[in-house]
Amino acid sequence: MTALVLRGDARHLPLPDASVDLIITSPPYFGMRSYVDGDEHYSGQIGDESTPREYIGNLLDCTREWVRVLKPEGSLWINLGDAYYSGKGAPTQPDVKSVARRPGVRALDRSGLGFPRKSLLGLPWRYAIACIDELKLTLRAEVIWDKPNALPEGVTDRVRRSHEHWFHLTRQARYFAAIDDIREPGSGYMRRPGATRETPPGQRRRAMADTVNPLGALPGSVWKVATQPFKAPDELGVNHYAAFPMEWPRRIIRGWSPAGGLVVDPFGGTGTTALVAAALGRRGVTVDRSADYCRIAAWRTTDRGERARALGLPKPPPQVAGQADLFGEVVA
Ligand SMILES: C[S@@+](CC[C@H](N)C(=O)[O-])C[C@H]1O[C@@H](n2cnc3c(N)ncnc32)[C@H](O)[C@@H]1O
Q: Does 100 have pLDDT greater than 60?
């Protein structure tokens, strides 16, 4: 399958109503990082808002649009990071406008936001609760991204932050899921046909022990996934510092989209979601406002080495003219 790269805005997707099976996305953090186009910070990017309220408002506008394009039985998986508030900066001072990766978790410095100093802003929760309350979406799961290689932090009075949030949201209570495809080794349980949820406490264990699932255990709600370095080829003249590891779209696509289905990332960046979707036999669409990142995604979603990595395979040897490649295309 191939992937389509579109330059566009996450709030206005050039896609028909109810056409998408699965959305997987990771919006920019609030006030933390600058994304560029033509080497310059570009306007209209999410994350640039003056207040958390505006940021959440813009994310909700995006989400309304994603609900429009999502099939009723589709799913939305969204990754959100939080921020601490230092309030130490000037009121108008923008936070660092640099694409450089920051060590550890940076506090948001802008002053005058009305939060207690040193508090977390609670952005993922604010978003998730608004999705339930305002958009009437069903919050099916909160999955914690446990980052075993999270960067160190210089604080001495709180724990180091080593996780981010993922939320699984649906339009309706019944939706597509292929959970058996992502079961994990170990003993899983399956309810016997006809067994009710209301098994009295003492009997529950016996009833479940009768029904061990041979396909394995349900994945839990904490997923340990190491961050993966990404480097675009030098000839593209631009890099991206916020690509998520392929393991996230890999598990989500297998678990919540049908073969041949349409998988979209409206904040597509380097095209990780579309690349993995295409490698797994789905149609992938990646959208980004920056033409620079669309160039990276166009390279990445067609590169044989990246495609092999998406499948967890070793890098294929160089192609020889006349020989069919790994994916069945003959080189002229
Ligand atoms: C955290 S990155 C996503 C990285 C992506 N998951 C990957 O693996 O490469 C967020 C992306 O959102 C893009 N972006 C910011 N505002 C946007 C908007 N309004 N519409 C579309 N893309 C936007 C940025 O250019 C950036 O590439």
A: no
Q: What are phi and psi of 224, to 5 degrees?
A: -85, 110
> Among 12, 24, 39, 45, which is best to mutate for testing ligand 1, by the most ligand atoms less than 8 A from CB?
45
Pick the atom of ligand 1 nearest to 25's CA. 6
Q: Give residue limits of the domains in the chain.
A: 3-183+219-301, 186-217
DSSP category for residue 91: T
Helix (H), strand (E) counts: the chain = 7, 14
- pLDDT score, position 87: 83
Alpha carbons 95 and 32: distance in angstroms, whole number: 6
CB-based contact 149:226 (threshold 8 Å): yes
Quote the tokens at residue 250: 């890999």
Ligand 1 centroid distance, CA of 266 (Å): 7
Residue having the nearest C-alpha atom to atom 7 of ligand 1: 243
The yes-or-no verdict on residue 142 having pLDDT over 60 is yes
Q: 3-183+219-301, what's its fold?
A: Rossmann fold (3.40.50)
**Does ligand 1 come within 6 angstroms of the Cβ of 269?**
yes
* 289 Cβ closer than 6 Å to some ligand 1 atom: yes
pLDDT of residue 277: 98
Going from the Cα of 285 to the center of ligand 1, the distance in angstroms, rounded, reads 13
Quote the CA–CA distance of 58 and 167 in Å, as a whole number: 17
Query: What does the pLDDT read at residue 322?
Result: 73
CA of 328 to the centre of ligand 1 (A): 32
Torsion of CA 77, 79, 85, 89, to 10 degrees: -110
